[in-house]
Design goal:
By secondary structure, this protein is of the alpha/beta class. The chain is built from 11 helices and 6 strands. It has a 6-stranded mixed sheet. Helix 2 runs parallel beside helix 11.
């Protein structure tokens, strides 16, 4: 059997597709997926891979606190190494930055102490991650501040505002996470260089799943590793091994198996995940083009600066050449004056030489006259 773009299907895949054809709505949804997602869907139904839990619809089915009380709480507690109890999921409509996010999963929850935690999964290593996370965290904090202040009215105190946690799981992290470090988990908050113990309200937890996959077997067995392995592992054989190592995961994997009989529901989740991915891809491409344009503009500005600097240097050189030319002209004028002075002196010397020669001639004539007169005297004339 052949489908989109003449792809050849295995016998198991053909069997799944034949079953889909018997359900026109499901088959139409399957045809609406791109080739990559069709293959991912077939990998699930042929027992090669688990459900892709790092995508929004799948994550929320497995971790939703209304469906599975305690799961998300345990996961967050392991990540942050503190007791976290999820009370409820909050709507995301009020999130100021939601429309600009490049997310494949985004879930906002309220904890039992009133604090908020935003759990996100990033598929693409977006630009300006630090600035984005700061803005998301600030949005959470202001959202909580506005709600609490509205509820307490005049009785509001700043100590009524609780912490906000920004938790980001990176499917593919930027090179910053791979440079000279072997850590997949990064927790942080604002501290002071003096050691001042002032507890601010914003905390962060970053998980690089691609780094975790590289060092998966390098750390000891613990619950946190089990949860992150659940998200990072899609191969069924590896999932079976994980279920043996962490028996409490077996319940989740059995739940995934139940979706084998809920084809329409699974296809809806795949379609929703693809829709989000397509939107994020477009946003990422736009942002990438904006970044490239920004870099090009920066390069043009730098080139303009270089040209301005070169122009300034040329002007300075022109000024120096003009000064040198003026100095040379002045030296030429001095030389001409000296030459005229020398010529005058030469004329004077020539005139003096002529006068001296004339005097010498007259003296010689006088000497000759004296000699002649002396001879006449000797003859007794």
């Amino acid at each position: 059997m052949q489908e989109k773009e003449n792809r050849i299907y295995t016998a198991k895949e053909e069997a799944v597709i034949r079953e889909l054809m018997m359900q026109p709505v499901c088959y139409q949804q399957f045809r609406g997926l791109n080739e990559r997602w069709q293959k991912r869907f077939l990998d699930f139904y042929t027992g090669k891979k688990t459900l892709p839990l790092t995508y929004d619809p799948f994550f929320k089915r497995i971790f939703h606190p209304d469906l599975h009380p305690g799961r998300l709480s345990r996961f967050l507690s392991c990540l942050l190494e503190k007791e976290m109890k999820v009370v409820r999921i909050l709507p995301l409509e009020e999130n100021l930055f939601l429309q600009e996010a490049l997310l494949i999963m985004d879930i906002l929850v309220e904890l039992n102490d009133g604090s908020l935690a935003n759990v996100e999964v990033q598929k693409i290593p977006y630009f300006f991650p630090a600035e984005r996370m700061s803005c998301y965290s600030a949005d959470l904090l202001m959202r909580q501040y506005s709600r609490v202040k509205g509820e307490r009215g005049k009785g509001f105190k700043y100590c009524d505002v609780k912490k906000v946690y920004t938790i980001v799981l990176f499917e593919k992290s930027s090179k910053l996470f791979h440079e000279g470090m072997n850590h997949y988990l990064h927790r942080g908050k604002t501290t002071f260089d003096t050691g001042l113990k002032l507890e601010l309200l914003q905390e962060y937890c970053l998980v690089a799943l691609d780094v975790f996959r590289k060092i998966l077997y390098d750390e000891g067995r613990n619950e946190r590793r089990g949860w992150i392995s659940l998200l990072a592992t899609e191969n069924v054989e590896e999932a079976l091994r994980l279920a043996e190592e962490y028996p409490w995961l077996e319940e989740i994997y059995k739940e995934m198996e139940t979706y084998m009989t809920r084809t329409e529901e699974v296809l809806e989740m795949f379609s929703e995940a693809l829709r989000v991915m397509d939107q994020n891809t477009v946003r990422y491409m736009i942002e990438e083009q904006q970044e490239q344009l920004s870099q090009q503009l920066q390069l043009i500005d730098e080139q303009h600066d270089k040209l301005d600097e070169q122009s300034r240097m040329i002007d300075e050189q022109d000024d120096k050449l003009k000064e040198q030319s003026q100095l040379i002209d002045e030296q030429h004028d001095k030389l001409n004056e000296q030459r005229e002075e020398i010529n005058k002196k030469d004329c004077q010397i020539s005139k003096q030489r002529a006068e001296m020669m004339e005097q010498a001639r007259k003296i010689q004539e006088q000497e000759e006259e004296l000699i002649r007169l002396k001879k006449l005297l000797e003859k007794g004339v």
